[in-house]
């Protein structure tokens, strides 16, 4: 949702669509979603024409979700924060001026009037207002406690044995590499080989020369999410099962754990975004159950 909001401001300047088609591709509770809406969503995400074609089903789904949320917010009489919307409109118009264009004439030329810009930016603002009204302090605290390692700045030190996979991998590729790591895991647990020696002999990552040591890492940033999550579930000295990531197969051993000291207040904005995403998904599911969605 936030990506759709802000990439708009930069990418609407890079795409030029003189007269978006009014062809209806789907209706949501009687409200049409047109080809022009689809083209505009692609602009917001900075997609090329080829990417737009490939991602069309996902774009349509996003547009349906947004319309369901609009209806929900309207039923709850949730208004956007005017100052937020006006600030964002001003930033969009400033980007147009930096191109040497007049917003009053340029925005309509790309099928995006000031009214349409305002309507588009009102949705995320109104949604944030709803989330602020709905999510309780107890929910913030519970979420932080349930995911404290992810948010409190905890760092681990670990080692990995990494095996590459072709792109895209077949089921056979994954099964072969998984079995290879499973065999190494058993040898390490049986103490017939140390993790460091196994990494030096078999790992295909640059860290093999350090016996697989990847140094300190937090929940996000250094390792693929699936690998990081698995590592944070381990105790010091434990070995993971083979883990698949977009890059290949990993076997992880945690060697140190350094607890963090960040508080709930330090990470409240991040947790707000997480709770907002969860609430968005739940609301869309509820609204979809009774919505009338018709493909054209």
How do the strands and helices of this protein lay out in sequence?
Blueprint: H1 2-11, E1 24-28, E2 31-34, H2 35-44, H3 49-54, H4 56-75, H5 82-98, H6 103-109, H7 114-134, H8 137-146, H9 148-151, E3 155-164, H10 171-189, H11 195-202, E4 213-217, H12 225-232, E5 243-244, E6 248-258, H13 268-290, E7 293-295
Antiparallel strand pairs: 1-2, 1-7, 3-4, 3-6, 5-6
Shape: elongated
Instruction: Specify the structural class.
Output: alpha+beta
How many distinct folded domains? 2
The CATH level-2 architecture of the largest domain is identified as Orthogonal Bundle
Distance between the termini: 25 Å
Strand order, main sheet: write it out: 4-3-6-5
Strand residue percentage: 5-15%
Number of strands: 7
Rg, Å, rounded: 24 Å
CATH class of the largest domain: Mainly Alpha
Q: What would you note in describing this structure?
A:
The strands form 2 sheets. The chain has a 4-stranded antiparallel β-sheet with strand order 4-3-6-5, sandwiched between helices. Strands 2-1-7 form a 3-stranded antiparallel β-sheet. α2 packs across α4, α4 packs across α13 and α5 packs antiparallel against α7. Helix content is 55%, strand content 14%. The protein contains 13 helices and 7 strands. With 296 residues, it is α+β, with helices and mostly antiparallel strands. It folds into 2 domains: 165 residues, Triger factor/SurA peptide-binding fold (Orthogonal Bundle); 104 residues, Chitinase A, domain 3 (Roll).
């Amino acid at each position: 949702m936030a990506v759709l909001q802000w990439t708009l401001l930069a990418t609407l300047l890079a795409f030029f669509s003189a007269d978006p088609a009014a062809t209806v591709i789907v209706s949501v509770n009687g409200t049409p979603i047109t080809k022009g809406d689809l083209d505009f969503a692609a602009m917001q995400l900075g997609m090329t024409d080829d990417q737009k074609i490939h991602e069309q089903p996902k774009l349509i789904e996003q547009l349906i979700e947004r319309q369901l949320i609009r209806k929900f917010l309207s039923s709850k009489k949730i208004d956007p924060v005017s100052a937020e919307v006006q600030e964002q409109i001003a930033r969009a118009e400033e980007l147009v001026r930096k191109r040497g264009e007049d917003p009053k004439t340029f925005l309509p030329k790309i099928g995006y009037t000031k009214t349409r810009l305002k309507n588009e930016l009102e949705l995320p603002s109104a949604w944030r207002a709803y989330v602020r009204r709905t999510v309780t302090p107890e929910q913030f605290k519970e979420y932080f406690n349930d995911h404290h390692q992810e948010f409190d700045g905890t760092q681990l030190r670990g080692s990995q044995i990494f095996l590459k996979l072709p792109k895209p991998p077949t089921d056979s590729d994954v099964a072969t590499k998984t079995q290879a790591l499973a065999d190494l895991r058993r040898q390490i647990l049986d103490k017939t080989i140390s993790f460091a020696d196994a990494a030096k002999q078999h790992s295909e990552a640059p860290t093999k020369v350090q016996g697989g040591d990847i140094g300190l890492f937090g929940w996000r940033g250094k390792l693929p999410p699936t690998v990081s999550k698995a590592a944070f579930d381990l105790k010091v000295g434990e070995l993971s099962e083979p883990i698949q990531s977009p890059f290949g197969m990993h076997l992880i051993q945690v060697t140190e754990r350094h607890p963090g000291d960040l508080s709930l207040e330090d990470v409240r904005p991040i947790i707000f975004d997480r709770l907002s995403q969860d609430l968005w998904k739940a609301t869309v599911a509820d609204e979809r159950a009774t919505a009338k969605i018709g493909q054209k």
